[in-house]
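Researcher: Here's a chain I'd like modeled. Treat it as a single chain, no partners, no ligands.
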Amino acid sequence: MKSLTHLVILAMMMTSGITAQENTHFTNPLIFDILKGNYDPADYLPAFPVDDPFAISEDLINRISPDSMKATLLALRTFHNRNTASDTMAVDKGIGAARKWVLSQFDRYSINQSGRLVTGYLQFDQDVCGMERHKNVLAVLPGRDGSDPSCIIIEAHLDSRCADNCDINCLAEGMEDNGSGVALVLELARIMSSYVYDHTIVFMTVTGEEQGLVGSNAFADYAVTQNIPIKAVLNNDIVGGIICGETSSPPSCPGLNHIDSTQVRLFSFGGFNSAHKSLNRFIKLEYQEMIRPLAPVPMMLTIMSAEDRTGRGAIIYHSGKMDMLRSVLPPLTNTETQMWLTRIIMTVSIPRMISSV
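Model: Modeled as a single isolated chain. Structure tokens:
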């Protein structure tokens, strides 16, 4: 109850002056059907399914492309300002152009995989800095186990900001916060859509994070009201930060100006014996056994006791919200573990990618 009280207080603080969501829906109705389990898995299987965890592990090392992620960063910076309330009509700037570009990337990956990714927006109405209509961008990879429709969400926020979080005219390229997270989610979608997983995977970029986790909250509330089962959530925020005090903050880093590019820190909701911390331990074990022996740059995985970095609210609130959706987190299958391992491998390349931009 104490944790829930903290969650409610935090939500009130972060969303002060922002109205609740209305008219929430997927622009592509197929997404709703898939997330409810109303689909035939055979329709989304590749011609030659690859599901062996060891084969996927070896393949990941060769297929992940730092150049691909760098290209995403360079593209995102061209939109000038991705504020939640920024331009939605221009073709080359603002949050509208940015989300259309992300959707075009998801569509391109889907075409390359014979339509296996189902793409679209989660659209909702809410007054944020004077902008009424907002969209999260999604690419859904249907799972092959039709008996359990629960999904795994991989997300990052697309919006950026300046000191005034309603400033829609300033230069807010958001390369680190959170272009790095978006680059990771897009690369995951590109790579993972080649393989077969038991459960449905949702790749999503959300809006309104800087104004109080608006986009994540919209999806969570919609999942509750529509009884969409969620198995796990992986939020990626500022994943390329390696300089303590500038692009990272305690306890992610030991001290001011400390540089660390070979450690992945896993924050999660709950205490030592929570399902979330247990999932992190499983991820770490699988990485050590299946990926580290093959990795050209081995990473150290650290399971953090804190729910988020000092002064941050995204993971505390968002993980807590998703925890209310599903009180018990079932263990993942071996093939699903590759999702988490892919994310860890890619963090090797992101810091070097950031420094070369």
